[in-house]
Recover the amino acids of this structure.
């Protein structure tokens, strides 16, 4: 089925180039009208055409460029559509194979699609070498950005500077699945959920218990949950073996557990622990992934130089905090490697 879905997303994007339609996706702006001529015909005109017909050969080249532009624009539209995450991941794979530099902002903006689901660690559990296509399933958006390479560096650094650091309060964009989160909290059958439940007031407990997905109180519940989690992140250490021992903790989380328990490190650790415990309900902070991609493209020394230069130029406290988090993340990555 995966192969069929992969071929479908390519087919739909190609069809969109000629018919200008895509189900559940905003059609890319028609800035470059695409003549009704196949890619094969245009290529044949370019290679096999009359050597004296310069105008015709240039027009064939323009057609190929316009078709590529249209194709890439339709794939970018898929990323911003209401299609399933799997279809979006397939589109990301194609954009990476196309080395579509114009798609970098879209790809970097959707790095969270790589967060753990079945596709998020598939290659790591395989007992035999994976075919090239299946290997792409492991972090496909990250791999696409890495394939594009150097043109992605400015966009990655920009995201590092504007992505909320571990000390920044959670907001609505950090909630991945509110109904599932509320359900776990209201049942409070797990140790970590029981811990959070006890942090709630009586009114907050009632709000969680009575919540229904279609309720008009969704915003109220969402804001309450965010405030609860932020209180916990900014509070005392939350790690206890009985509370988090049943969850798979990231290497990054384990690394911060070994660091001096300063106020900053403690808040980072608390947030990482919550992200690990609620991996399907909360989006993970993408700073680590951005730094890791920079390291893959340019190497650790150049990445360190760039981050330190940004840190020196930063004027406000929040930006410095975000960049410092990236610097510390780089140290973690180098320790692991």
């Amino acid at each position: 089925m995966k192969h069929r879905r992969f071929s479908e997303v390519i087919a739909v994007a190609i069809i969109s180039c000629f018919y200008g339609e895509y189900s559940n996706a905003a059609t890319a702006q028609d800035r470059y009208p695409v003549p009704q001529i196949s890619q094969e015909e245009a290529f044949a005109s370019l290679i096999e055409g009359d050597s004296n017909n310069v105008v015709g050969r240039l027009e064939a080249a323009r057609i190929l460029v316009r078709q590529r532009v249209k194709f890439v624009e339709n794939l970018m539209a898929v990323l911003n559509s209401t299609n399933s995450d799997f279809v979006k991941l397939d589109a990301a794979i194609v954009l990476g194979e196309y080395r579509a530099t114009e798609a970098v902002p879209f790809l970097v903006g959707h790095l969270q699609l790589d967060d753990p689901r079945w596709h998020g660690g598939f290659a790591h559990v395989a007992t035999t070498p994976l075919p090239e296509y299946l290997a792409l399933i492991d972090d496909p958006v990250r791999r696409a950005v890495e394939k594009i390479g150097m043109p992605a560096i400015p966009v990655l650094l920009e995201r590092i500077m504007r992505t909320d650091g571990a000390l920044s309060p959670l907001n609505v964009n950090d909630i991945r699945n509110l109904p599932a989160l509320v359900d776990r909290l209201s049942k409070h059958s797990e140790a970590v959920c029981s811990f959070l439940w006890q942090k709630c007031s009586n009114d907050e407990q009632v709000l969680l218990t009575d919540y229904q997905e279609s309720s008009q109180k969704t915003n109220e519940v969402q804001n309450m949950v965010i405030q609860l989690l932020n209180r916990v992140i900014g509070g005392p250490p939350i790690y206890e073996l009985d509370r988090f021992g049943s969850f798979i903790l990231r290497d990054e989380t384990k690394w911060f557990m070994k660091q001096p328990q300063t106020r900053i490190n403690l808040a980072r650790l608390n947030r990482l622990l919550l992200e690990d415990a609620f991996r399907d309900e909360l989006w993970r902070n993408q700073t680590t992934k951005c730094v890791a991609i920079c390291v893959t493209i340019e190497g650790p020394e150049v990445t360190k130089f760039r981050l330190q230069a940004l840190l020196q130029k930063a004027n406000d406290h929040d930006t410095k905090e975000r960049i410092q988090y990236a610097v510390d993340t780089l140290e973690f990555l180098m320790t692991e490697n």
